[in-house]
Design brief:
Shape: rod-shaped
Distance between the termini: 61 Å
Order of helices and strands: HH
Structural class: mainly alpha
Radius of gyration: 26 Å
Number of strands: 0
């Protein structure tokens, strides 16, 4: 009886795992759409004399 309960619980856990993996999206386009943000160009403030390239800080790893 103990083996039967153990195997039944293992089968139930396997069924739950398979169902959860099959429900995840495999499309990267769907995943990327969650992180897309619209930028309003009118809200970006640019100085009248332009942008000084020497003052732009770029990270070393970027």
């Amino acid at each position: 009886m103990k083996i039967k309960k153990t195997s039944l619980s293992f089968a139930f856990a396997a069924c739950i795992a398979l169902m959860s993996f099959s429900c995840t999206s495999t499309s990267t386009a769907e995943d990327d759409s969650l992180y897309e943000q619209n930028i309003d160009i009118l809200k970006i403030k640019v100085p009248a004399n332009g942008i000084d390239i020497l003052k732009i800080k770029v990270p070393k790893n970027g």
